[in-house]
Amino acid sequence: MLRLPSSWTWDFWLAQDQGTYHLFFLKASRALHDPDLRHWRATIGHAVSDDLRCWTEVADALVPSDSPAPDDLATWTGSVVRDESGLWWMFYTGVDREGRGQVQRIRAATSTDLMTWYKHPDLILESDARWYEKLSDDNWQDEAFRDPWVFRDAPDGPWHMLITARARTGPQYDRGIVGHATSPDLENWELQSPLSQPDAGFGQLEVLQVEEVDGRRVLLFSCLHTEMSQDRRTAGQVGGVWSVPIDGATTGPFDITKARRLTTEAAYSGRLIKDPTGRWVMLAFHHLDEGGSFVGEIADPVPVAWNADGTALRLVDPPAEWVPEEHEATVGATRYPTDS
Hints:
- By secondary structure, the chain is mainly beta.
- 1% of the residues lie in helices and 42% in strands.
- The protein has a single domain, classed as Glycosyl hydrolase domain, family 43 (Tachylectin-2, Chain A, 5 Propeller), CATH 2.115.10.20.
- Strands 17, 18, 19, 20 and 21 form a five-stranded antiparallel sheet that branches.
- The longest helix is centred in the C-terminal third of the chain and has 5 residues.
- The protein is globular, with a radius of gyration of 19 Å.
- It starts with 6 loop residues before the first strand and ends in a 25-residue tail after the last strand.
């Protein structure tokens, strides 16, 4: 577990190099007292581990830029990949003072060793009204365009970026979609049409990730109950980490109506990775305690497994407070019955 005495930690992403796991995470000082203020003070911290459990904090990776800049207020969630030359690229979200933190854009930084990072001088991507909701649409609290997840579908193919974004049409809490961009070289990006449709009952799909877990592809995202449609809330569904089985390519399209909950809102911002034994596990941050107060620390990994027919990913022996009511009868199992 990673708990910092001086800072809250929340969203995070991982890289692995020569047996060492590198954890990059959002952090903000506990001296703020009110954790709701953390978003506007966020920097990107860094810790290392050889087992995903015991972490050593090292120098922070990134802080906001001097004004004016697209990230001169705060630096938010991203991902890290390595190019053919061995150079590491971090793609992350920036919010600025001019936009009062309401306009999200995607920037990049590079490193030769994962320790010292240098920001790319140019903006990588911003929302485009051809496909994605803008702040001027006045339908959401901000211009959602963040949490870039970058990966390659084939060794010689283009790079893909999944983006937390919103459609321009539809009910307010149904517009959450998977944004998409492509690049031949990680430096030059072209925004594409989204990889999912709205109307799945989610206002936004946060902290996206795609992986192939035990031969089955899956999309992971997080969403709070306050950002879900009234139909989902009326049906008794609440938020947490969600998984979507992928029937086709890792580049979609994704059917978000197939989403199933992995956790309650006690855990959030889940990330899948293989542990040192080669087993797939999920890390998440401790979001809320039993009284509903923000916690802000990164939990130990929990193994994951598919149910018998591959329709849903489930946690194996998770903390009791993470277990959604619909899963309570299956805690401790390594295979799960199909959701009703």
